[in-house]
Amino acid sequence: MHLIMDSSAILQAIFPVSSSYLSVPSAPGLKLTSTPDLKSFFSVDGVKLPAWVDGMCMAEYIPTLEEDLKLQVVDASASIGCRRRFIEALAPAFGRPLEADPIFCRKATVLSISGIFTFLVHFVIPLQFPKQQPILTLQSCQHCNSQGIPITSSPKNSYPWSPRWEVTEMAERIYDYLADECQNFKKLCSDGFPQAK
């Protein structure tokens, strides 16, 4: 698959200006920014920039930065495959996802049932997956607030997790966690809000 998008990273350098002459100029302030398209695939916010060595010029720094970024983009690409396998691993436990991000594999939604309580589980899968675990939000299919908006839980990410687990175990552990957590969410929906008709 070939994606056409504006995926640029921009290095901003602010060189300090001194009133006195220095034989070795001070290191510039460096900041990496990116286009929204690149940010959806690869977050430059967490990129650790290579150190600026005294006496270095921009022509020496850029190739080092480019090489470093290439390695990090390769890792981000591998992360897409891992996120895709995780979404696929949800099916045996939860059933086939109702929705899933097919390109970057950052989101998925599954339908869950506990007795007669029906709810959605929204998965937001971070760019750093599996080092960082997905954020889960539960949404009732039967309860709405006074504005008619379905009741949702607060985001959940304090459940058992290890990046060393296989994706099937990750999905099974989340399923086990939600078996208990959905009871708390059901009680919140039933106690705090009138049932939708």
UniProtKB/TrEMBL annotation:
Pfam families assigned to the protein according to its UniProt record, in alphabetical order: BRE
UniProt key word Nucleus: yes
Annotated protein name in UniProt: BRISC and BRCA1-A complex member 2
Family per similarity comment: Belongs to the BABAM2 family.
One GO term of the biological process aspect: chromatin organization
Protein localization: Cytoplasm; Nucleus
Signal sequence residues: none
Cellular component terms (Gene Ontology): BRISC complex; cytoplasm
Keyword set includes Nucleotide-binding: no
Keywords for this protein: Apoptosis, Cell cycle, Cell division, Chromatin regulator, Cytoplasm, DNA damage, DNA repair, Mitosis, Nucleus, Repeat, Ubl conjugation pathway
InterPro entries, A to Z: BRE
Organism of provenance: Triticum turgidum subsp. durum
Highest taxon in the source lineage: Eukaryota
Primary subcellular site in the record, as a coarse category: cytoplasm
